[in-house]
Amino acid sequence: MDAVLKTGLILCTLAWLGGCAAPRPAPPLQPAAPIIHPNYTADITSLRQALAAEVPNAIAPGVYDALWVSDTQAQFDASPYRITSPQLVVAVDRSPSVQQLRILFATPWGPWQVIGGGKVSTGRTGRHGYFITPTGVFPHTIAILDYRALGTYNQNHIRGLGVKGSRVWDFGWQWAVEGWSSDGTIGEIRLLMHATDPVYLESRLGRPDSEGCVRVSAYMNVFLDRHAVLDAGYLRAAVSDPSYAAMLPADGVPSPLAGTYMVVFDSSAPPQPVH
Questions:
Q1: Dihedral, CA of residue 268, residue 83, residue 148 and residue 221, to nearest 10
Q2: Which of 10, 89, 130, 139 has the most CB atoms lying inside 10 A of its own CB?
Q3: Which of 57, 188, 211, 200 has the alpha carbon at shortest distance from 122?
């Protein structure tokens, strides 16, 4: 008898006698469960509403949002820092023709969104001791403690950091171009973001005017402070250390999207290659 036929008869006989089970098809492959990311729409909407209500003349999201996002992302791409969790970012365009900031919602897995913004003043040229605000990504961490303005006047009767109690965000020592030099000489500045004199200098926001720091309006200063826009580190540390909680405002309404980074770019400058 043919060997193949004999083998087939034996298998059929064993199956009829119950000596072996008929072969079963492999179960179908189950598709991987989709990754469902949290929806932050309610938090974004709430912050936009708060900005419009608390900051007079706040700049609402608009037609240039995509440019703000792409210029900010380019700075991250050129830096060692990455957005690894959903959070707020303060982006500043130091271009002399712009001089504005935007609060962005940044996420590692989806499109970034603009919350809104306002006018700023960054470093000016042509005056000794005034630096050009450096571009880059600047983390705001508890390694360098912030402080609050005393509201005192200088020799020119100017409250350089704003009224008493205004928040001063400290990003540490940074290299910046001397605005009075013609050869691009650089020096170190203490990079801060702060309010300015409400009587004499706040009306000048929207043009380069600072010594190298980022000046914001008194209302924007309070908004960024109250909603802990850049205070992710302080909020975490305050859980176990009251000294960090002391820096946060008593009437604070921290956003669950609180972040870490201030980004400065210049939309009027040619793009720099990423190394």
A1: 50
A2: 89
A3: 211
| Residue whose tokens read 């309610």 | 42
Cα angle vertex 146, ends 112, 120, to 5°? Answer: 50
Q: Give the list of residues 6+ apart from residue 6 with CB closer than 8 angstroms, or none.
A: none
Distance separating alpha carbons of residues 40 and 49, to the nearest angstrom = 14
Among 219, 244, 212, which Cα is nearest to 231's? 244
The CA distance from 200 to 37, in Å, is 47
SS3 content of the chain, % helix, strand, coil (to 5): 25, 20, 55
The tally of domains found in the chain comes to: 1
Using pLDDT thresholds of 50, 70 and 90, give the confidence band for residue 50.
Answer: very high
Write the pLDDT tens digit of every residue in 132-171.
999 999 999 999 999 999 999 999 899 999 999 999 999 9
Three-state DSSP class for 77?
A: helix
Q: Would you say residue 123 lies in a domain?
A: yes
Q: Going by C-beta distance under 8 Å and a sequence separation of 6 or more, which residues neighbour residue 84?
A: 108
Dist. CA 145–CA 168, nearest whole Å: 10
Q: CA torsion sign, 45 to 247 to 165 to 151?
A: negative
Range of the domain at 230: 40-265
| Residue 69, in any domain of the structure | yes
The H or E element that residue 74 is part of is helix 65-77
